[in-house]
Records
---
Amino acid sequence: MAERQFASFYVEDDFLGVDIRLVREIHKCTEVTPVSPAPAYVAGLLNLRGQIITVIDLASRIGIKRQKPGTCVNCVVLKTNHELEGMASQESIGDGTGPDQVAFLVDRIGDIVTIDSSLIDPPPAHVGAVEGRFLSGVAKLESQLLVTLKASEILKLEGVV
């Protein structure tokens, strides 16, 4: 049985994750510089060691209403498609990101979650307010449901990737 690993995080009370192989790095309490004009789902820009990265407000993009603004900005920085192509020795990820550096703004960072592939169910039409097109699957864990996201669909944005 094949296992898959996901970088997990929370947006409001939703427990979400992306395939760990898509993630370049994770930053807690990061400063994001707002930009205008920009679509509502663009939180701003992150200067990461001199590299400018577009930060997508994941809640805004996938339809989760934020109850309270966070005081600490956490970012999950994704690899580019070019970086993913360099991982040819690994099995196909089945998801892409895009040519440019992008990060997801999330509320809280979780852990790395390892799940047997057979326990990941196909995505339903919706999970709460999140549309099915953004989902790659769901997995029932001991105490909660992990909703896995389809990064390529989230990043199908005008002018972002």
---
Amino acid sequence: MLRHRGNRVLCPVCGCRFERFKDDWNRPDALCWRCGSHERHRAQWLLLERRAELLASAHSMLHFAPEWCLRRRLSQIGGLRYVTADLTQPDVDLHLNLMRLDLPDHSFDAVICSHVLEHIPDDAAAMRELCRVTAAGGWCLVMVPLDLSIAQTYEDSSIVDPSERERAFWQHDHVRLYAPDIAGRLEAAGFVVERISPVAEFGEATVARCRIGRADEILLCRPRASRSGAEAWG
């Protein structure tokens, strides 16, 4: 890391500064040399720092497909029951199918589901499940690879060849390419959705220094209606 030291870029997740970030396989200047954060992780942590009430109000959190950089930070928060989940990842607390979650209704105050839905065959079912397990008054943070240049999410179940999926959906294991209309899909699942633009939320200077893309939008979702009798796990 010493040979990359500098002050041009900042990783808010680990607090380190460098001359530039490490190149990823498909884009330059993307990965933190120390904690491995991607642009989306830096955007999420900036939001959680900027809106401190999100973590302050959460006694329990369910984190799907947790990456080490955020998992390390979130697991250290005192008073937060932090639960990790994935379908196949071996080192998580729960192995869950997002389309059919084996969890009680309204069971977590906070849920993070970042860069997962693009892999899920039935994302409508997955979104309904996310809403079902989010407690009344709680929140669910959603991010996906987003193409801001298209108006409608593109999916074609006949595309099964990995190379064709990469061409159509940006990655061989993706099953769709999301447009900004994902907000409408989440609303149809029962959420009220706030679409957070990195530039509008953090400012041009911070976005540039943390190397966050304009398409790294955060969808902050809250269950639409208050549900009586809902109690989150403490």
---
Amino acid sequence: MEKGQLQSENNTKYSGESELLLAESNLSGYNKDIVRKISGEISGSINVLEFGAGIGTLAAEYQRATGVKPECVELDATQRQVIIDRGFICYTSLYEVNDTYDAIYTSNVLEHIENDREAISQLKTKLRKNGILVIYVPAFMILFSDLDSAVGHYRRYHKKELMEKVINSGFKIRKCHFVDSVGFIAWLYIKFRGYDRKEKSGEGKSMMIYDKVVYPISKIFDLVGFRYLFGKNIMLVASNDYE
């Protein structure tokens, strides 16, 4: 297993770019569902920001699904250029953002940030009064695997931990639940099998099977209540109700 570099202000290069490209090509259903979940929480928002936009996969899908074009923040220079080439405004950091937004969403980003509490607090300053923040992050440190290390994760989250960090930053929690209950089991398999990013053969096919077969089943399990018990990810929705 090749360990990824942890991202920081001094090291802006993201180590999981190859995984992002594979995910965009082979997880179209999964990405569409994440956007569906996010857009459902911030429906009607005109000014939207995506924090940690990667190569712009979700931003592009969000625009297709809603007609609203998010602005983006992305630390990695190579990925930022991809986003700009796709026609989106993209900032290097939140410090460059002078506007405030009706809604901000961030998907699989906070786990890459060492001081995630500060990042959440900064996000609050970019939200308008009663603005909505949607956070989507990996769940359960028990699932922390070679793949997490390879793409530069500092952590996976427990619900209580994430909720406390968001509340302590001045937000009011609207909802918080797990996503992708069957994915929890799939990630356990990855953890115990191990992950070698040098062995790419078959990885795209595995993602496609997950996208077309496993994740649709997982959505059904989530709907019947498993999302309140466990899942591969956590989705949290909060509002900026306080000054």
---
Amino acid sequence: MLAYETAGDPISGLKWTRKTTQAVADELASFGIQVSASTVAKLLKEMDYSLRVNHKKRAHCSISPHERDEQFQIIKRTRKHFERISAPIVSVDSKKRELVGCFKNPGKVWTREPICVNDHDFPSLADGVAIPYGIYDWCANEGTVFVGTSHDTAEFATDCLAAWWRLYGCQRYPATHELLILADSGGSNDPRRRAWIYGLQTKLCNTYGLTVTVAHYPPGASKWNPADHRLFSEISKHWAGHPLDSYETILNYMATTTTKTGLQVHAHLSETLYATGLKTSDEEWSAVHIQRFEPQPKRNYTLIPVPEAATCDSTSPTHDENSYHPTAMENLELIFA
């Protein structure tokens, strides 16, 4: 057997070969050794060979391990601070685009007969697309998913956050004036996108008088985002094996997702059309009141509401100019120091 046909795990000592048992038997036959494929399988197991699949365990990150760990520590401290002052913490993320129609959905389901679906996943056969944007309320163990039908843009993401606050946040946290958002470092909530930050400033901070702090997970670390493993993973398990044949079906599976720990999910359809490629002008950007924090200012920042722009009504907390942010800013400066 050629050396390059063999590979192994340097830690456990397990080895494997890419040849099939029949190929190994044929190779041995060329040396005058006659054995069957089943005998080869038994011998390989005795020699600690095993059938293995690829494991996604090699992390490739654009930042150093020190920066990565540093950001995780910053997120941990920030989250503890908001828990201590009983302020809301939400984790946000968008799930992959789903084709709406009779298409195969990975997973298995108990049925008497297999569910027949289209033999090809052609977009032309779809009734539309579903773009789920999830907001997981850490303190309440509650998820809200807005299903978009056009594009996953920064405008869509910030509209979803504003809608969540209007529908649920201000009802659950009527006295708060601070909000922590945990987000990935890419996609519609990319911290490098002006539209993302500008949308938070105008739709959350100025409209509701909220001081919004955002902490982004390092690149390649989305699996640690609570919206991913506490919300979307449960939804995926709930609808596994069921074709997502309509928007009604998608919303129903989302809204009926529960866990033993008490997770509840709200689902809403957003039929607004969002254009791609929109830019935030310099004039609009100049209206953003942002405070960035060292040592990783691009991933950690607070947006401060403009007092004269904030509205006070029955659905938002009452604030005055001196109660918005000074105390919050001093506390956060101590956290990031």
